[in-house]
Amino acid sequence: MTADLTRSFLAHGFFAEVQSDDAKVLIISVAARMAGMHPQTLRQYDRMGLVQPGRASGGGRRYSARDVALLREIQHLSQDAGVNLAGVKRIIELEQLAYELQQRLADAEVELAAAQHRLAQLEALTYPRRDLVPARATPTALVVWKPRSTQPN
Question: What pTM value is reported for the model?
């Protein structure tokens, strides 16, 4: 069941899609209406750590479009897929971790390609004429000395 939920998250591009709109501007009543929930449910999810709204200067909660999308996903997982809230929290944490690791891997691949390109440039500068560079010696074979047998064949 969890694998299906993971595929659902990835198929919808959930984390990639909602990372961009993080402006915390929606008051709790508006965010609750957009998510199709009661404001008290949003307060409960905040206490559980499922969603982290921002705070206004007066202490009121402020939600972003990303938070609303996350609330909808929580509702889908808990109501349609039958996952309890502790399971939903763990799924969200793992999906966020997977997304962050994918981003780090993509960044590392870009850095590796740049390093390989730079290495190729440096090799070209070091040996501009390959025909003048002596060929690399081939490794010699290891010869093991084995004494002759003193017994007749």
Answer: 0.59
% pLDDT > 70, the chain: 69
Q: What is the Cα–Cα distance from 95 to 89, expressed in whole angstroms?
A: 10
Residues 114, 101, 66, 36, CA torsion sign: positive
Domain span at 9? 2-93
Cβ-based neighbours of 63, under 8 Å, separated by 6 or more:
24, 25, 26, 27, 28, 30, 31, 42, 51, 53, 54, 71
DSSP string for residues in 72-137: HHHHIIIIIS---HHHHHHHHHHHHHHHHHHHHHHHHHHHHHHHHHHHHHHHHHH-S-GGGSPPPP
* 52 contacts: CB under 8 Å, gap ≥ 6: 46, 67
CB atoms within 10 A of CB 93: 12
Task: Tell whether 40 is covered by a domain.
Answer: yes
Domain count, the chain: 1
106 in Cβ contact with 16 (< 8 Å):
no
Q: If DSSP codes are grouped into helix, strand and coil, which group holds residue 153?
A: coil
Q: What residues form DSSP beta bridges with 55?
A: 61
